[in-house]
Specification:
- The protein is α+β, with helices and mostly antiparallel strands.
- It folds into two domains: 30 residues, no CATH class; 102 residues, Sandwich (Immunoglobulin-like).
- 15% of the residues lie in helices and 39% in strands.
- It contains three helices and ten strands; from the N terminus they run αααββββββββββ.
- The strands form two sheets. Strands 1, 3, 4, 5, 7, 9 and 10 form a seven-stranded mixed beta sheet that branches.
- A hairpin with a 4-residue loop joins strand 4 and strand 5.
- The radius of gyration is 21 Å and the shape is elongated.
Length: 150
């Protein structure tokens, strides 16, 4: 009987303990054995940018994000965001975020500061919200923006 003729066997779903055991197994080996993919992520961290002021519904959360081009060539950068999710699961849509400037040309060794404004709906429940902001054409430029709605 070939593989295509065999009835499909359902695998039991993994529970939290199984996933944790698998992660421990991967990390029990030195980075050299895990290969370059894992090694690259061991040293990378996504920065957290917290808005300083508390935000009320019906107003805006504002964050500044400075990007430095450490490459030898210029880069064209645009930022976009995910939805912003509260600790209770309420979402502020990514369309509520405005980024200024919309696009920026950053020379080699240069930098640019973007301002991200998130319009918080008046009915947004209190809580801590966070979302990811990323740059187009760059897999490494990203940060988490967090703001507290009162």
């Amino acid at each position: 009987m070939t593989n295509s003729q065999r009835p499909a066997q359902k695998e039991a779903p993994l529970d939290g303990a199984d996933v944790l055991a698998a992660v421990r197994e991967v990390f029990s080996h030195p980075a050299a054995e895990r290969g370059p993919l894992r090694s690259r992520y061991e040293t990378s961290q996504v920065p957290l940018i917290s808005c300083d002021a508390l935000v009320q519904g019906g107003t805006e959360a504002v964050a500044a994000l400075r990007i430095v081009n450490e490459e030898d060539v210029a880069a064209d950068i645009s930022l976009y965001t995910t939805n912003f999710v509260s600790d209770s699961g309420y979402e502020v849509a990514s369309l509520a975020a405005r980024v200024s400037p919309r696009n920026a040309h950053v020379a080699a060794g240069g930098e640019v500061t973007f301002e991200v404004r998130i319009a918080v709906p008046s009915q947004a429940p209190a809580g801590m919200y966070s979302g990811l902001v990323q740059a187009t054409n760059s897999r490494y430029v990203k940060a988490v923006i967090a703001f507290d709605v009162t």
